């Protein structure tokens, strides 16, 4: 899907304000909306309309086209994907698609991973998490199934409920570097490395195939010869561990 920039078209839109050029850019990159929408639809409740996701995604694409600086030599597809995902997630939040009780469960599991893995300095087992939460392993598995939908967009969620800064904002520097950038970069990389090292082998494979090879969860299930529900659980646990690592990263930055 990645293609070289059509510089003349971008120049017509950005330098001359040519609305027709803008429309052609929107049409050219509409397949990107479908791609992001289909990936984000995986694991979402059935009552969430894919058409609604796509509509919000188009708004994100338009926003990306309006704000993208083609002179910087960046890949538009990457930048637009962030904007499209953000617009879709904003729409999901407005629709209150995840019950508060489910978010609270996700937060409890995330905090459990963060506390226990910081305490033991290793990856903790399902049994240890279950014991910490005072539930059975079967109940923990059920909980993971319930909160799976909250991990699909976890990097777009606020670091704190009362803040607008997201985890993804720590990864994306849309403009020039600011004086705090290097500190953020060092601690973020350190936190992510530590977090990934604590993942189990299967969790690392799922993360790699989903986020780097861009396979769907069902495709990963075929590759790993596991059920889609099992892949969903592995994905959820991996993301909850990494969310805990990034939350710790935020706490460290607060000390500076």
Short synopsis of the structure:
Pfam families: Sigma70_r2, Sigma70_r4. With 256 residues, the protein is an all-alpha fold. It has twelve helices and no strands.
Key phrases:
2 domains; single chain; 12 helices; 0% strand; Rna Polymerase Sigma Factor, Chain: A; elongated; Arc Repressor Mutant, subunit A; mainly alpha
General description of the model:
This protein is an all-alpha fold and 256 residues long. The chain folds into two domains: 7-94, RNA polymerase sigma factor, region 2, helix turn helix motif (Rna Polymerase Sigma Factor, Chain: A), CATH 1.10.1740.10; 100-253, Winged helix-like DNA-binding domain superfamily/Winged helix DNA-binding domain (Arc Repressor Mutant, subunit A, Orthogonal Bundle). The protein has twelve helices and no strands. It has helices at 7-16, 19-41, 50-67, 76-94, 100-120, 126-133, 137-151, 167-171, 181-197, 201-212, 217-224, 228-253. Helix 5 crosses helix 7 (137-151). It is elongated, with a radius of gyration of 20 Å.
């Amino acid at each position: 899907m990645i293609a070289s920039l059509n510089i003349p078209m971008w120049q017509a839109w950005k330098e001359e304000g040519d609305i027709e050029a803008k429309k052609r850019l929107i049409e050219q990159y509409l397949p990107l909306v479908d791609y992001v929408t289909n990936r984000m639809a995986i694991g979402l409740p059935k009552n969430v309309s894919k058409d609604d996701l796509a509509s919000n995604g188009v708004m994100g694409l338009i926003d990306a086209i309006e704000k993208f600086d083609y002179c910087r030599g960046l890949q538009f597809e990457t930048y637009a994907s962030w904007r499209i995902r953000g617009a879709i997630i904003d729409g999901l939040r407005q629709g209150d698609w995840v019950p508060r009780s489910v978010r609270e469960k996700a937060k409890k599991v995330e905090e459990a991973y963060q506390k226990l893995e910081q305490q033991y300095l290793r990856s903790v087992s399902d049994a240890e998490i279950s014991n910490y939460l005072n539930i059975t392993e079967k109940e923990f598995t059920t909980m993971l199934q319930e909160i799976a939908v909250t991990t699909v967009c976890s990097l777009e969620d606020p670091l704190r409920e009362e803040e607008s800064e997201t985890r993804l904002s720590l990864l994306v520097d849309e403009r020039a570097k600011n004086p705090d950038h290097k500190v953020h970069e060092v601690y973020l990389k350190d936190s992510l490395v530590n977090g990934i090292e604590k993942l189990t082998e299967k969790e690392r494979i799922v993360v790699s195939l989903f986020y780097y090879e861009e396979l769907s969860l069902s495709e990963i299930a075929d590759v790993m010869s596991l059920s889609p529900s099992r892949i969903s659980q592995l994905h959820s646990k991996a993301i909850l561990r990494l969310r805990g690592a990034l939350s710790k990263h935020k706490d460290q930055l607060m000390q500076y």
